[in-house]
Each structure stands twice: as C-alpha cells, then as structure tokens.
C-alpha cells in the first residue's frame, strides 16, 4: 500500500474516534451504565477483530502465548480510554474530551518516536515538532475558553 492509502485509512480511524466516543457515551446514558456500555462495545469489537483475524491469519493467534507479556498492556490502555471517554464525554463534551485525548496522543507519539520505544523508528523531537505540539496545546486551550457560555 502507498503512504497515501495509509494516511487515508488512519484519517478514517481518526474520524471514528469521536464517533465512537459519542455513540458509546450515548449508549451509557441510554442504559444508565457507562461501564456496561463499554462491555458491549468491547464485545462487538472483540467479535469484529476475531472475524478479521480468522480471515487474515488465524495461525498468528497461537503465537500470542510466546509474545512478551508487557505487550498485552495495550488492552488495558484501550479499556482505560473507552471507560474514561464513556464516563467523561457526557459531562465534559465529546469535543473537549477528544481534544485532550489528541493532545495526549501527540505528546506520547513524540516521546515514543524520540526514544524509539517499543521498536518504533527513532525520530528526534525537533524545535518544529515541539512547536507543533505547542500549537495543538494552544488549540485545546482555545476550545476550552471559547466553549464556555
């Protein structure tokens, strides 16, 4: 696949994050239990991912037992994200919640790249990259002060 295709797929994933947040927060309000809404989301996600894994390479599932156990922490992180966005978005606003998630993603991604963590290609934080994160932080601040009545 080309970089353009990768970029478009990731753009679609990015578009999906606020939609996920809004849908799951609404489900949590509708059923009166944000944690239960998260369980439903994970059940649907598990079945979807299982189907894709079975179609694209079922043998890989058997190799998970041999993988370093710290890599499984990613599951805890996605649960943390889904649970927190489901609880917080109805009170804080989907936009506000996702803007702070995005800011956290930029900072974390810059650190992962800078130090080459988890096998990532090492890309140093330059003044331009740091300025980009600062601009994003400024944007988050502006959404906070302009969103207040």
Explain this structure.
The protein is an all-alpha fold. It contains 6 helices and no strands. The chain has helices at residues 3-31, 34-56, 59-62, 73-92, 94-115, 127-146. Helix 5 (94-115) packs antiparallel against helix 6. It is globular, with a radius of gyration of 18 Å. The chain starts with a helix and ends with a helix. The mean pLDDT is 91.
Detail the poorly predicted runs.
none
Q: Quick one: biggest sheet?
A: none
How far apart are the termini?
A: 46 Å
Spatial shape: globular
Estimated share of beta-strand residues? under 5%
Mean residue pLDDT? 91
| Secondary-structure element pattern, one letter each | HHHHHH
Question: What does the secondary structure layout of this molecule look like, with pairings?
Answer:
Blueprint: H1 3-31, H2 34-56, H3 59-62, H4 73-92, H5 94-115, H6 127-146
Helix pairs in contact: 1-2, 1-4, 2-4, 4-5, 5-6
Observed structural traits:
globular, 79% helix, 0% strand, 149 residues, mainly alpha
In short:
With 149 residues, the chain is an all-alpha fold.
């Amino acid at each position: 696949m080309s970089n353009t295709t990768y970029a478009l797929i990731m753009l679609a994933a990015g578009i999906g994050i606020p939609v996920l947040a809004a849908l799951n927060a609404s489900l949590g309000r509708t059923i009166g239990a944000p944690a239960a809404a998260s369980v439903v989301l994970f059940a649907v996600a598990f079945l979807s991912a299982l189907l894709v894994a079975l179609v694209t390479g079922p043998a890989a599932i058997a190799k998970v037992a041999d993988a370093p156990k710290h890599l499984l922490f990613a599951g805890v992180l996605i649960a943390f994200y889904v649970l927190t966005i489901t609880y917080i978005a109805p009170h804080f606003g989907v936009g506000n919640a996702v803007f702070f998630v995005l800011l956290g993603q930029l900072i974390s991604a810059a650190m992962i790249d800078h130090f080459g963590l988890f096998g990532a290609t090492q890309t140093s934080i330059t003044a331009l990259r740091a300025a980009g994160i600062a601009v994003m932080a400024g944007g988050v601040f502006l959404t906070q002060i302009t969103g207040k009545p």
